[in-house]
Specification:
The complex is a heterodimer of chains A (about 450) and B (about 260). Chain A has about 450 residues and is α+β, with helices and mostly antiparallel strands. Chain A has 3 domains: about 160 residues, Beta-Lactamase, CATH 3.30.450; about 80 residues; about 150 residues, 2-Layer Sandwich (Heat Shock Protein 90). Helices cover about 50% and strands about 20% of the residues of chain A. In chain A, the strands form 3 sheets. Chain A has a 5-stranded antiparallel sheet. The longest helix of chain A has about 50 residues. With about 260 residues, chain B is mostly helical. Chain B has a single domain, classed as Growth Hormone, Chain: A, CATH 1.20.1250. Helices cover about 80% and strands about 0% of the residues of chain B. Chain B is globular. The chains are: A alpha+beta (about 450), B mainly alpha (about 260). At the A-B interface, helix 1 and helix 2 of A face helix 1 and helix 6 of B.
C-alpha cells in the first residue's frame, strides 16, 4: 500500500495548482486587458491636451517637437496637411482618420503602435497620438507579474504546509500503530487513546473487543491447562499405585498385568505431551525469553536422559562450540531437546550412535542431531510434524511407547523461537539428521 | 510573453505527462516494477539535451526542414510504440515486450517534448528582461501539465483493473491519434505533403491557445483547422488502435481480477 500522506500531498497539491493556475491565467488576461484600457485612456488624454495646448493651423516651418521615443503625435489639417509632429512620428498619415473607431493598431519603424485620432472641431484639424504596443504590453505585464509571482512561489510553500498538516492529521493513526506495535506479546490490555478521532473510533473499538476476546480465551486455556494437569495426573498416579498393589498381591499373573501397566504409562505420557504442546504453541506468548546457553541445556538434557541411552548401550557425543548464547525460553528449549534426544534414542538400535553438534556464526546458532537409526522416508518429512502422526503408524520396532506429539511440540517451540528446522538423511550415521537454526540477536 | 510561454510549455509538458501518467498507472495496476520509468526518463532527458544541443545542425539538414521531419518521425515512433504496447498488453505473458514499449514511448516523448522546452527557454537566456515572465510562464505551464498528469494517474490507479486498462487504453488511443495528426502537420510544414484547405475552422468554438484547447490538443490531438490528409490519417490511426484495443480489453475481461 502506498503512503496515505504522499497520496494526499500530491493529489491536493495537483488540485490546488490546477485551480490556482487556471484562475491565475484568467486574472492575468483580464488584468492585461484592464491595463490596456488604462493606456488607451492615457493616449486619448494626451491627444486632448495637445488639442488644447497647441493652436497651430498652419504647417510649422521649424519642424518638429522632441518627444520620448515610445510615443508620437501628429497634427493634420482637415485637408490632410501635416501641421506639426513629434520627431519620431511618421511623415505620412498613419491611420485612417475617417474610420468609425478612434483607436487603431499600425506598423511603423519596425514596431507595432497603438494610435488614437481626435477630431479638433474647434480648429478643424486632426490630432493623432501613438504609443509603442510592445512597451505598453511589457509595462502592463510587469505590473501584473508582481501579483503573479507570489502565487507561483506560494505553491511549494503550500506543499510544505500540507505535508505538515497531513502529518498532524494522521497522528492518531501513527499513535495507534505505535501502541499496537509496542504491546508486549502477553499484553492484551485494551488500546487507550486520548481524543480518538471519529474515523478511528470504530477501529479502536473493534481492536479492543478483539483483544478482550483473545484475553478471555487465553485465560480459559490457562485455566484448562492447570485444571487438566491436576485433574488428569491425580487419577493416573492413583491407578499406578493400585497396579503396584495388584502386583504385590501376587494373585494375578504379572504378564497379564503388563498391558494394563503399558496402557497407564502411555496415557500418562499422552497427557504430559498434550499439556506440553499447549504450553509451547507459538501464539502462547506467556513464555518469557531470556539469554540462555544452548550448550549447557544440551548437556543437562543428555545427563538427565543418560539412563535410557545407557540401557540401549548407545554412544552419544556432543561436539562443536563450548558456549552458545541465544535468546530463548529455558524450559521450552529443554522440552525441545528432550523430545529430539528421546526420539534419537528410541529409533537408534541397540549399540547405535547419536551425534549432537552445535556451531554458531554472528547471526545464527545451528544445532544438529544425527542418529544411526532407520531414519524417516523423505516423503514423510512434512507429515511427521503433524499432531498424532506416527511414522509407519508407529509400527517401528523401537518398542517404546509414543503418542505422535513429540515433533509437533518441537515444531511449536522452533516457531516460537523464530528458528528454522530441516530434516535430512544423515550421511555419516545413515539415520535421521535434524538441523535447527536459531537466530542470534546479539544486543550491545 | 507570459501567456505564450504558458501555452508552449503546457503543450509540451502535458503531452509527456499524460503518456507517463497513463503508463505508470497501468504498470502499477499490472504489478510491473516501475524501474522502467526511471530508465525511460533518464534516457529521454539525455536524448532531449543532445537533440537540443544539435538543433541547429538538425534544422539545417534536408534543405532546412530537418527539424520538422525528425519531429514527425518521433511522433510516428511514439505512435508505433503505443500500438506495440497495446499488442503486448493483449498477450500479457510477453512482459519484456510490454516494458520495452513503455520505456521507448516515454523516452521518445521526453526527447521530443523536452528538447522543445530546452530550445524555447534557451532562446531567451540572452534577453534577461524577458527571462522572468518566461520562467514564471514556464512554471505555470509545467505546473498545469504535471497537475493534470497526476490527477489522471490517480484516477487510473484508484479504479478496478478492468476499468483501469479500459480508461488507460482509451487515453493512449487518443494520444496516439494526436501523434499521427501532429506528424502529418509537421510534414505539411516541411512541404513533404501538399498543403490543402483546412476541412473546417472551429477556432471560434474552442481556441487552440486556450487551456481547454491545449488539453484537447495533448489528449486527442485537437486541431481547429485540420488539413484533410491530417484528419484522414488521424481517423485511420484511431481505427487501427481501436480494433487492437477492443481485442485487448476483451482478453482482460476474460481474466479474473488481479
Amino acid at each position: 500500500m502506498k503512503s496515505i500522506r504522499t497520496y494526499l500531498l500530491v493529489a491536493l497539491l495537483a488540485i490546488i495548482t490546477l485551480v490556482t493556475f487556471v484562475s491565475l491565467l484568467h486574472g492575468y488576461q483580464s488584468s492585461i486587458s484592464k491595463a490596456q484600457q488604462l493606456f488607451d485612456q492615457r493616449l486619448r488624454n494626451m491627444a486632448e491636451i495637445i488639442a488644447i495646448a497647441n493652436q497651430d493651423i498652419q504647417p510649422r516651418v521649424d519642424g518638429t517637437f522632441n518627444q520620448s521615443p515610445t510615443v508620437f503625435f501628429q497634427i493634420w489639417s482637415s485637408d490632410l496637411i501635416l501641421l506639426a509632429h513629434s520627431n519620431n512620428a511618421p511623415e505620412t498619415l498613419s491611420t485612417d482618420v475617417n474610420s468609425q473607431t478612434n483607436y487603431d493598431d499600425i506598423n511603423f519603424n519596425g514596431y507595432r503602435w497603438r494610435t488614437f485620432s481626435l477630431k479638433d472641431d474647434h480648429l478643424n484639424r486632426w490630432i493623432i497620438t501613438g504609443e509603442r504596443a510592445d512597451i505598453r504590453y511589457n509595462l502592463a505585464e510587469n505590473v501584473v507579474m508582481a501579483s503573479i509571482i507570489p502565487i507561483v512561489l506560494a505553491i511549494p510553500v503550500a506543499g510544505l504546509i500540507i505535508w505538515v498538516a497531513i502529518g498532524l492529521g494522521l497522528k492518531p493513526l501513527t499513535e495507534l500503530t505505535a501502541q499496537l506495535n509496542n504491546k508486549q506479546a502477553d499484553d492484551l490490555s485494551p488500546v487507550m487513546m486520548q481524543n480518538t478521532p471519529e474515523e478511528l473510533t470504530q477501529l479502536v473499538a473493534t481492536t479492543n473487543a478483539l483483544l478482550e476476546r483473545l484475553n478471555a480465551a487465553f485465560m480459559r486455556e490457562q485455566q484448562f491447562s492447570a485444571d487438566a494437569a491436576h485433574e488428569l495426573r491425580t487419577p493416573i498416579s492413583a491407578l499406578k499405585v493400585q497396579l503396584h498393589n495388584l502386583k504385590s498381591a501376587q494373585q494375578i499373573d504379572e504378564k497379564e498385568l503388563q498391558p494394563l501397566a503399558d496402557g497407564i504409562e502411555r496415557m500418562g505420557k499422552v497427557i504430559e505431551q498434550i499439556l506440553s504442546l499447549y504450553r509451547h504453541s507459538p501464539d502462547q506468548a506467556m513464555l518469557k525469553q531470556t539469554e540462555v546457553d544452548l550448550c549447557a541445556i544440551v548437556q543437562q538434557v543428555i545427563a538427565r536422559g543418560y539412563e535410557q541411552i545407557a540401557v540401549k548401550q548407545q554412544q552419544i557425543s556432543l561436539t562443536g562450540v563450548q558456549h552458545c548464547r541465544i535468546k530463548g525460553n529455558q524450559f521450552a528449549l529443554e522440552t525441545l531437546l528432550q523430545n529430539l534426544i528421546t526420539n534419537a534414542n528410541k529409533f537408534a538400535p541397540e549399540g547405535g550412535e547419536i551425534q549432537i553438534d552445535i556451531s554458531q556464526t554472528n547471526s545464527m546458532a545451528r544445532l544438529t542431531i544425527e542418529d544411526s537409526g532407520a531414519g524417516i522416508p523423505e516423503n514423510q518429512y512434512e507429515r511427521v510434524f503433524e499432531r498424532f502422526y506416527r511414522v509407519n503408524g508407529d509400527q517401528h520396532d523401537s518398542g517404546t511407547i509414543g503418542c505422535g506429539l513429540g515433533l509437533a511440540i518441537v515444531k511449536h517451540i522452533v516457531a516460537f523461537h523464530g528458528a528454522h528446522i530441516t530434516l535430512n538423511r544423515s550421511t555419516q550415521l545413515g539415520g535421521l539428521k535434524i538441523v535447527i537454526d536459531f537466530p542470534r540477536r546479539i544486543e550491545g | 510573453m507570459l501567456l505564450n510561454s504558458v501555452i508552449i510549455i503546457l503543450r509540451e509538458v502535458l503531452e509527456a505527462a499524460l503518456i507517463i501518467s497513463v503508463l505508470s498507472a497501468l504498470s502499477q495496476k499490472l504489478h510491473v516494477s516501475r524501474k522502467w520509468l526511471i530508465i525511460a526518463l533518464l534516457s529521454g532527458l539525455i536524448g532531449a539535451i543532445t537533440y537540443a544541443i544539435n538543433i541547429k545542425v538538425v534544422s539545417m539538414a534536408l534543405d532546412g526542414v530537418g527539424q520538422e521531419v525528425i519531429n514527425a518521425s518521433l511522433h510516428l515512433l511514439i505512435y508505433s510504440f503505443i500500438v506495440l504496447l497495446i499488442l503486448s498488453l493483449k498477450d500479457q505473458s510477453n512482459h519484456r515486450l510490454m516494458v520495452f514499449a513503455m520505456v521507448s514511448s516515454v523516452a521518445i516523448a521526453v526527447v521530443r517534448e523536452g528538447s522543445e522546452i530546452i530550445v524555447y527557454i534557451d532562446g531567451f537566456i540572452s534577453s534577461p528582461e524577458l527571462l522572468l515572465p518566461i520562467i514564471i510562464g514556464s512554471a505555470v505551464g509545467a505546473g498545469l501539465g504535471i497537475s493534470i498528469g497526476v490527477l489522471f494517474y490517480y484516477l487510473i490507479v484508484n479504479i478496478s483493473l478492468n476499468r483501469a486498462v479500459k480508461v488507460g487504453l482509451i487515453i493512449l488511443i487518443l494520444i496516439a491519434g494526436g501523434m499521427v495528426s501532429q506528424a502529418m502537420q509537421l510534414l505539411i510544414q516541411a512541404d513533404f505533403i501538399i498543403s490543402q484547405q483546412p476541412l473546417w475552422d472551429s477556432s471560434s468554438l474552442i481556441n487552440e491557445r486556450s487551456l481547454l484547447g491545449q488539453l484537447l490538443y495533448a489528449l486527442i490531438g485537437y486541431e481547429s483547422t485540420p488539413a484533410p490528409i491530417q484528419f484522414f490519417c488521424y481517423a485511420i490511426s484511431l481505427i487501427i488502435t481501436i480494433i487492437l484495443t477492443t481485442l485487448t480489453i476483451r482478453s482482460y475481461q476474460q481474466r479474473p481480477e488481479l
